[in-house]
Amino acid sequence: MSDNREQLLDLSVEAEGSEERFSQVRNWFRSTGWSMADPTVYDLYYDKHPADAFGPRTLAASADANGSYSFVSGRDYYFAGEGTGGPVCRRCTVQLPLELIVPLVSEWYDGGPEPRLACPDCSWTGLFGDWDLRSCMAVASFAVIIDTGTAGYSPELTMTLLEGLRTNLGGRWVYINKYI
User: Fold this and answer.
1) What is the percentage of the chain residues whose pLDDT exceeds 70?
2) Are 139 and 111 members of one domain?
3) Does 92 reside within a domain?
4) What are the helix and strand counts (H, E) for the chain?
């Protein structure tokens, strides 16, 4: 059996600020109707982290009523699961090879700076998080994990939430789809 998690990562948060960011983001989710408090809700994969039930706005987007949002504070490594690949250039859509990326992400995870990458085809350069990471990996100190339940992958919900988070709370939000 397979499962998906939509991982929304804020790369602008340092480990020391992750609890404060958790409060800001969870309050925003609740006040805007995306989530609601429910002490019985948890995600099997993130059961040690606070979680909310889907709120009326999420349910209106035709998501499964059994889905949840988990709020994960603290530095961690996130990846796409099965089919993890390298980042994709936002200018020309060339994908960098995974074997080139793994050592860079490992160094980043061990406390190094976020890597800067250059596209071998079009020469575009950007920080790792500026590339398309949908099927890649990243290091972040705060994440929102969406368990869409039986509804499966929901690109519309994910993109709407990313836009709302960026507009209303700022930060460097990136998205990775985890296929378990």
Assistant:
1) 95
2) no
3) no
4) 4, 8
Instruction: Region of 152 please: left (phi>0), alpha (psi -120 to 50) or beta.
Output: left
Question: Is residue 124 domain-shared with residue 142, that is, in the same domain?
Answer: no
| pLDDT score at 143 | 98
What pLDDT is attached to residue 148? Answer: 83
Q: Do 14 and 75 have their domain in common? A: yes
Bridge partners of 146?
6, 69
Residue 85 domain-assigned (yes or no): no
Asked if residue 122 is part of any domain, the answer here is yes
Q: Is residue 93 part of a domain?
A: no
Q: Which range marks the domain in which residue 109 is found?
A: 98-130
Number of domains in the chain: 2
Report pLDDT digits (tens) over 72-102: 999 999 999 988 999 999 999 999 999 999 9
| Distances 164 to 32, 56, 98, 122, 127 between C-alpha atoms, Å | 10, 16, 30, 31, 22
Averaged pLDDT for residues 150-173 = 89
Q: Is the predicted pLDDT of residue 153 greater than 70, yes or no?
A: no
Q: Which residues contact 123 (CB under 8 A, 6 or more apart)?
A: none
Distances (CA, A) of 96 to 52, 56, 115, 131: 36, 39, 13, 10
